[in-house]
Amino acid sequence: MKTFLVVDDSTVVRKAARRMLETWSFRVEEAENGAVALHRCRQHMPDGILLDWNMPEVTGFEFLELLRGEAGGAAPRVVFCSTHNDAAHIASALSAGADEYIMKPFDADILREKLVEVGLLEEEPT
């Protein structure tokens, strides 16, 4: 079973993402900031990470830079999830090692599409 780490300081966003991901048979863990997320990754590196940008202690951007420097840290597929939609933020996230970027608010269709794009889910048969 593939694992997913949802990193967001909003409990509501974490719970909504968890419900979506569990529907697709992911084992889901949650972290309320980048420091907690880094600790979880050091214990067990997930297959995928849904990552908020603005969080206390360690931001999503800082977490991503630290993650990619960790042993095995290049492996997880990271989807940044933020209210920032300007080209500079998106380019920064991708250059720091994010695999995809989605805007808040998002729904199951948008998240599923991005997970297919990064190879964590199969396309639904038509």
UniProtKB/TrEMBL annotation:
A biological process from GO: phosphorelay signal transduction system
Limits of the Response regulatory domain: 3-119
Residue numbers bearing the 4-aspartylphosphate modification: 52
UniProt key word Phosphoprotein: yes
SUPFAM superfamilies xrefs: CheY-like
Keyword entries, A-Z: Phosphoprotein
Keyword Phosphoprotein in record: yes
Pfam family membership, one: Response_reg
PANTHER family cross-referenced by the UniProt entry: TWO-COMPONENT RESPONSE REGULATOR, TWO-COMPONENT RESPONSE REGULATOR ARR22
Record's protein name: Two-component system, chemotaxis family, response regulator CheY
Organism from which the protein derives: Ancylobacter rudongensis
Top-level taxonomy: Bacteria, Pseudomonadati, Pseudomonadota, Alphaproteobacteria, Hyphomicrobiales
